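Morning, I've got a small favour to ask if you have a moment. I've dropped the whole record in just underneath, so have a look.
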Amino acid sequence: MAKIKSGQNLTKKDTIVSTAALLFREKGYAASSMRDLAEKVGVEAASLYNHIKSKSEILQDICFTVANRFITQLEKVEGSKDSVIDKIETILRFHIHEMIHHYEEVYVSDREWKHLEEPYLTNFQSLRKSYRKRLAAIIDEGVRNKELKDIDAPTAVLIMLHAVSGIESWHRSIQKIDADELEKNMVVIMVEGLKK
């Protein structure tokens, strides 16, 4: 029987979760089976259960790991003495970096979270709403102190997050610009558009 091959600094569970993220992005969570996952990992399906309890546990792991990375970064930005523009740029660059370098996991947490089971579904929805409100509060602060144009903060957050999720098409394009160029262009377009 084949063994799970874990990469450098990765546990067997990490290997299973990262492979599952790829599978869930390709096929969707609902259409992916444990047998599909075992095949991608290169082991018998029964071997997976030595490391994880269920497919739903993997989705929870992906969604909450990603959410925690974003929340940790947001807390750092909120606690900084940077200008609002600098805070927004830092957050935006982090989002872009995550979407480029952790694409599978971020995509799954953004698109497949609706398949989480309770109480995880409600918890994750609360985290998403709270995150957006906290981002909007940063933008509102910039509007109040005249650093930003007089804009509706929740709308600005929605546009920024949707623009970043559009990096999905960059991953699929055959002729794509360099990742650093992509980040630079997105920051210029979005941050400059907010400045007063």
